[in-house]
Structures are given as structure tokens and as C-alpha cells.
Amino acid sequence: MTAAEGANPRTIFAWCLYDWASSAFPAVITTFVFATYFTQAVAPDPVTGTAMWGHATAIAGFCIAIIAPLVGAVADHGGRQKPWLAVFTAFAVIACAVLWRVRPDPADTTLALVAFAAATVAFEVATVFYNALLPKVAPPEKLGRVSGWGWGLGYVGGIICLAILLVGFVQNPSPPFGLSREAAEHIRIVGPFTALWWAVFALPVLFVLRESGSRMVPAEALRHGLADLRGTVSFLRARRDIAWFLAANMIYTDGLTTLFAFGAIYAAGTFGMALDEVILFGIALNLTAGIGAFGFAWIDDHLGSRRTIAIGLLCLTAIGAALLLVESKTLFWILGVMIGPFFGPVQAASRSLAARIAPEAHRTQVFGLFALSGRITAFIGPAVLGTVTYAFDSQRAGMATILPFFLVGLALLWRKTGEAAR
User: Fold this and answer.
1) Which of 27, 127, 334, 336 is deepest in the core (most CB within 10 A)?
2) Domain of 27: which CATH number?
3) In whole angstroms, what is the distance from residue 149 CA to residue 387 CA?
4) How many distinct structural domains can be found in the chain?
5) Single pTM value for the model
6) What is the separation of C-alpha 367 from the centre of its chain, rounded to a whole number of angstroms?
7) What is the pLDDT of residues 244-263, one digit of tens each?
8) Domain containing 114: what range?
9) Which of 106, 108, 124, 112 is nearest to 60 (CA)?
């Protein structure tokens, strides 16, 4: 199926709805609810919990770095992305459901970290195939808009998901289904809830989007995929624009991933926010992030993906530095809401830039490398943050390690990344 064949509102909406579906995982599990619950109630103490969460994130990043390019290369030879998307989405849903068993007891730290890491790996690998479907859904002149709409809809989904959990479970003195507040079941339910949300809203893209492609035998696809993977160095040597972009994405995405993973932990530990306040902050942040993703979607197509990413990184660096200096919870709220509009544009424009510069024959492989570049050093950011937090006994010191990733990534991005990047 070509982009022109897939470019209709129904198909585009079904594709964007997967962002809505999967957004529950980073919003609820990775950032605002389960991460806070783990560091505040499951781990021995918040500082140790922050370090443990960082190391689990790092291990997941290492696994993604190994898996993503391989499955991307294999899928290019299989010709279709939807079956892979379905399989890894199913893995992620199961891992999220397992989080229900994590009690507020240090004895359950291993279970929590293993399930979280497994869900993270499945989430990221599924995203490789989801992103690779973008050029099949959107025509070239609308790549930025459709990518931005997906991110924006994802943030809206995150807002609604967080709001339901806040009102229906976290703040409810009598949680539904007989859930026990004493056993933290009103918090633990976020795992199964996220799993159900993801599974239900992922269905449209799997049923609505029609995908043509060869039906190569898996063993044959694996053989050809491994051969392609061995030729990756030569491919990147020939396409320096892609190589420089992937290098830049590797660095600044590490900063974004670390910020996502530890933002709520920082809010709770340094500014004393209770879980319900962290969720409210998450709703506000997702609201401004969604506005930013929708607003910059048109800017991406008109100003260019590279410039859109650069604007976002500069603003993230400036506001992020201010967040490290403030002592007031009110100022933290204000600056935190201000930083939101620049999350989505950096991610959405990176995805559309990858789609613009990827050769059609190597599209999923490039998105596998795109995922790899966002994860190959992903263990460094959380590991450094966790180590610095533990060494200085300060979450503020640990969070300060994020800013250099934005600046170095921006410097690499400004190398020539192709005419399509503008």
C-alpha cells in the first residue's frame, strides 16, 4: 500500500489512535503514577528507588538497542509491519497487567522492575513498526502534520487516562470493585487499567489499515534481515544525512527519555508532591504538551523538521535549567507546565524527519535504527542520573545531568541532515 492509497481520514485516524492507546504506558506507568508509587511505597526509600528505577530503565534500553534494528531489518523483507506491531503490543499489555501484583513491600521490587523493563522493551519495539507505518498512511507533504496529530492525540489520551485514574481510583475514598486502599490496590490497578486501555484502542489500526506486502517465510526473512543488518555500516556511510540525524537523535532522545522517566519522581521527592498532586501535574503537563504537538504539526511541514526539533530543544534546555534552580512548588508548577509544549514537537518532528529521509526499501530498518539511536545510549542517562542522585544524595543533582544531552544533540543535529530536513 502506498501513501497515496492510505491517505484517507479513516486510516489516518486509526493510525493516530494507536498513539492514544500506547500513551497510557509512558503517562501512567513510566512517568506519573507507577514510577512514583514504586519509589515512594515499594522501594526501601525514594533515593534508592530512584537509583533502582534508573538501572531498570538502562537495562531495558540495552535490550531495545539489540532487538529493534534486527526486527526492523527482518520486517522490511517480510514487507508488513502490522503483525509485528500486534505481537509486541500483546507482550507490552501482558507485562503491564502483571504490575497489579506489585504490593507496597520492598520484597516486590524485583517483580516491579522486571515487569516494567519487559513492558518498556515491548513498547519501544512496537513503536518501531507503528512509526514505519507513517509513510503508508500520510502523503509526503503531510508527514509532519499526521505525525504531530498522532503525538497530540496521544497526549489527549494520556490526560483522559490519568483523569479517570485520579478521580475513579486514587482520590476515591471507596474505590470500585472492592479495591483495598490499605493494600494499595487503588494504585496497583493502574497496571491492568493501562493494559486494557492499550489493548482496546490499539485494535483500529490493526483492522482498518490495509497493508500489502510479500509473505516471505519467517526463516527467509530472518536470513535476509541479518544480511541487511550486516550491511548497515555501509548503508550509513553512503547516507551521511541519516547517520548524522541518528547520532543527534541518540543524544537528545536520551535526555528526553530520562526526563520522562524521572520527572514525576523528582516532583514527589524534591517538592513533596503527593501522588494525587503528581497526577494533576501530569494532566496539566500532558495538556500543554498536546497543544504543542498539534500546534507545531503545521510548523513542521512549513518550517522543516530540523528547525522544529532545534526550537524544541533550546526551549527544553532553558526551562529545564530554571526548573533545577527553583525552590517553590508554585514556580515548579508554572515552569513544568511551560515545558510541556516542547516535548511533543521534538518527538513528532523527529519521527517525520526519519520518514522523510528513509529510502522506501529500507524504511522499517531506518525506523529500527531510529529506535536504536533513541535507545543505544538510553542506559547512560538513567544510569548517570541514578548514580549522581545516590552519590550526592540529591535528586536535584541527578536531574541536572539531563541538560547536556539536549545541547550535544542539538549541536549534532545542526550538521547537514538532508534537504528534506530543511
Assistant:
1) 27
2) 1.20.1250.20
3) 37
4) 1
5) 0.74
6) 14
7) 888 888 889 888 877 776 77
8) 3-212+220-421
9) 124
